[in-house]
Design brief:
This protein has one helix and five strands, in the order E-E-E-E-E-H. It has a five-stranded antiparallel beta sheet. It starts with a strand and ends with a helix. It is α+β, with helices and mostly antiparallel strands.
Amino acid sequence: MCLAVPGKILSIDDKEPMSRQGKVSFGGIVKTVYLAYVPSAIIGDYVIVHAGFAISILDEKEAGRVFDYLDEMEQGGP
């Protein structure tokens, strides 16, 4: 099973458009992520990340719902 996880873009390095990268925070853990598939993403946006690539932009409200769901799963469900 594959899992895509939301994260918040903290910084962007877009010197080369096809290798555009950014620092993305996943609940405090910061990773470098490729942003080439989401060229309109900006600092502060939430993105869905799979295998090191941001694959879509997510609004903050939806990201919050995903975080709540993941917290619920970690606690053992409702």
